[in-house]
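pinned: reference chain
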Amino acid sequence: MQSYKVKEVRVHPNFRAHGFYNDVAIFTLDGKAKYTDYVRPVCLPSTEDDEFSLVGEIPTVTGFGATDYGGRESNILREVQIPVWRNEDCDRAYIQPITDIFVCAGYADGGKDACQGDSGGPLQLYKNGNWVQIGLVSFGNKCAEPGYPGVYTRLTKFARWIEANSIP
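pinned: its structure tokens
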């Protein structure tokens, strides 16, 4: 197991806690991770992928968060595959505007999604033989509630900022 401390946190300059707009940050570690079968760099989408419609895709979200609302965090890494919604449908579910900086995913009947403790975790899509991180867990209505998909920060909208603020 590898363990590192966070040396620096770079929060997006336009982050707004109310509404979770621009909900993305970069953490710099105090050491360099050793690549193994279980530790490797993530593939990020390019800005050109922004036009690629994710609707109908079934990405995977992973995390150690609670398995039900108000529950305890998991001791093991969990994963679930959830379908992407049209942003227009997601917008009708939530009071706040769901703009193009978000991607929504989950089942209309609920039951499967990210939960408390998963925030900041990856939403990934297996594409062309690689896992590509398309989103970050941002918010939702409780956990996997019927009619309320999870809302994720859409990384194509932040690819340039991530690249400009990452250490090579």
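why pinned: The longest strand covers residues 130-139. The longest helix spans residues 87-93.
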